[in-house]
């Protein structure tokens, strides 16, 4: 009797699991922009660099195809850093490309001074522009790597503070 009950319970679990996974494989149409990856009207990701506020996270919103507005925040060894900006994907309207060039503009953390003497440590904020590319793997179209070369326009106070530190 005990063995029969275990077999029935096991059969029920297998049946339930098979039904559950079968339901998960149904395809439903996704409303999306033609060149934005599936479900990518809003996206979230982590990263490293000034566009992430140091080591941090970024939330992006795509109001129209190929344009994303973002806000990011993170830790930049000295304190909290942030950035807000926009990224434009240079991509044809109806194609899927594994490599997509990007241009970005942002305002926020773009440089800092970190020394052994904490009184001189400081984060600087200003505008930055970036050129880069998105690399999309075939299997996971919603996931991608974004590489950028970011050019900061540092405030004058950064240059004067660096010069003052050299004169100490």
Task: Give short descriptive properties of this protein.
168 residues; alpha+beta; seven-stranded antiparallel beta sheet; 2 helices; elongated
Please tell me how large the radius of gyration is. Answer: 24 Å
What is the number of domains? Answer: 1
Alpha-beta content class: alpha+beta
Helicity range: 10-25%
Give an overview in words.
By secondary structure, the chain is an alpha+beta fold. The protein has one domain (35-159). The protein has helices at residues 2-24, 156-166; strands at residues 42-49, 54-64, 67-75, 80-89, 99-113, 122-135, 145-152. Mean pLDDT is 80; it is low at 11-39.
Q: Quick recap of the structure?
A:
The protein is α+β, with helices and mostly antiparallel strands.
């Amino acid at each position: 009797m005990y063995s029969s009950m275990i077999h029935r319970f096991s059969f029920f679990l297998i049946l339930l699991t098979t039904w559950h996974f079968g339901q998960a494989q149904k395809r439903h149409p996704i409303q999306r922009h033609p060149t934005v990856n599936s479900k990518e009207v809003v996206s979230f990701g982590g990263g490293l660099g000034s566009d992430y506020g140091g080591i941090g996270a970024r939330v992006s919103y795509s109001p129209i195809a190929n344009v994303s507005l973002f806000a990011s925040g993170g830790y930049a060894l000295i304190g909290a850093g942030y950035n807000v900006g926009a990224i434009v994907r240079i991509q044809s309207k109806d194609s899927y490309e594994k490599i997509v060039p990007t241009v970005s503009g942002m305002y926020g953390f773009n440089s800092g001074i970190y020394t052994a003497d904490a009184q001189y440590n400081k984060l600087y904020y200003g505008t930055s522009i970036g050129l880069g590319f998105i690399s999309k793997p075939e299997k996971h179209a919603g996931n991608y790597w974004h590489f950028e070369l970011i050019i900061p326009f540092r405030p004058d106070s950064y240059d004067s503070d660096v010069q003052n530190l050299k004169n100490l």
